[in-house]
Specification:
Elements: E1 14-19, H1 35-49, E2 54-59, H2 67-72, H3 77-100, E3 106-110, E4 119-120, H4 123-131, E5 135-139, H5 149-160, E6 165-169, E7 174-175, E8 187-188, E9 190-192, H6 193-198, H7 206-214, E10 219-223, H8 229-234, E11 241-244
Parallel strand pairs: 1-2, 1-6, 2-5, 3-4, 3-5, 6-10, 9-11
Antiparallel strand pairs: 7-8, 10-11
Amino acid sequence: MAEEGTGCKPAFGRVLLKLSGEAFMDSATSQGIDPDVVGSIADQLAEVKDMGVQLAVVVGGGNIFRGMAASARGMDRATADYMGMLATVMNAMALQDALEKRGVYTRVQTAINMQEVAEPYIRRRALRHLEKGRVVVFAAGTGNPYFTTDTSAALRALEIGAEAIIKATKVHGVYDMDPMKYPEAEMFETLTYLEVLNRELEVMDATAISLCMGHSLPIIVFNLFEEGNLKRLLCGEKVGTVVCDEK
């Protein structure tokens, strides 16, 4: 039976959405947070919540600060990574604000304690929020330097028992070459974890892929910025590229 008001029965009960910091970026300045863009993302997430899907989100911080880039220019790597974690908290707060303006109850949990602005990450509390229908936004990565938000997404997804990681991008899926540079690039409908690792495809970093492979957690890469894509994906339609154990 279709869920009332949505036109479909969700294909997943609980998912984790991975959002890069660049997804929040002001296209005019190529940095910072664009409230209109964040609002558009929040509209899609609110629509998903109406379907009854339990939704967690991991956000990056590349629109504000890139730890690896700063490290490459001489900054201490651990310091740079901690600064990147703080950038993810800013993005998480912006997303929380946009969601709550749309009537979606949201909690931000951070891997670095900052109780004045967000809850500390506590797995059982996160599960309770999800069960109560709240969106949980995980920020500050894993709380450790040298780990990316990709790895954080894989870790949190496994901890909360998500049925899939949904990675939002600005292209339709995973391609054999950069579709922005090469119009002849071909998109994969499905890939195995080993194919992603062996071909060094830019899905998620190797640590994240290995974590997902070890626990058979599927990854779906799709274009968040095509209207209705997220809802179609969660309704079970073929959207984007699926990375899993077998094709």
